[in-house]
Sequence to fold (321 residues):
Amino acid sequence: MKNNPIYLEPIINIQDLIDNAKCYEVVRKLRWPDGNVKCPLCGSSHVIRHGHDETEPERQKYHCKDCLRYFDDLTGTVFSGHHQPLKTWILCSYFMGLNQSNLQIAKELDLNEDDVQNMTEKLRGDVTVKKPKAKLEGEAEIDEVYIVAGHKGNPEAVKKKGRKGRRNRLKGARGRGTLEKEKPPVLGMIQRGGDVSLIMLENVKQETIAPFIQGTIVVGNTVVYTDEYNIYGRLCEWGYKHKSVCHAKGEYARDEDGDGFCEVHVNTIEGLWSLLRSWLRPHRGISQEKLPHYLGFFEFVHNVRRRGKALLASMLNLLLN
Ligand SMILES: [Zn+2]
Fold:
């Protein structure tokens, strides 16, 4: 065994095998598909090349003949203004698509976990801001879950609450929670066979949930299915056709129109909750400050209907445009 050369090989870092110049080519292609470089500062196409970046020579610089400003391949994107080379950001995005934790990514890329955390937070935040807003119609389901989320990594917020930091894992209040009780509700809306929309809320009072529902689900002909929880009691008033299942009575699906198919249920959104729980599992101790970005990223992944390596193109396209 000892003489087998395979045991003498040094560990190869995947980063060293990736060509930074190719990463820039990909970025230019996604940003300016017709090869026509546009100034991100004023929108003009009256642009000339203007040398390369000093620290990263693969990065092309440009001069805009209209607004007279200078920019480069990354200006105005989340990848701009950092010391890590572009290939590191792209690899980081790729591993995020595989739902790896910061620690796992740090190990893969031989980086410090804090650096990776900074990168993934920026990427997740930008995806959350830029993702298209879901519009649901036809048949939709609404439900809520409660996710334990404290103030990890945010001692200021803990101080404000007037309590000491925790040494043990946060367990969360029993039953239905609130943001205050460190078990914020997440409201989920899903179109059957379509997109999903998730939002973390302070509580699930009717007046809290109404604007999010009305801003997401098209009123008029949409049939909305929920359980019997009374926060959903005014959906008809808000302009929807509303049908609910009564879980308390042991009812999980009901055939109301008599076609032999039990259409009144919330199984679609409940299936999504189990996907969400397993998606969040590798990322231990997500704080309530960061949970909205995890939800936003999950929503994006779900709605583009792509997983793993196929997700990278969708993610880069969103981040660059
Ligand atoms: Zn310009």
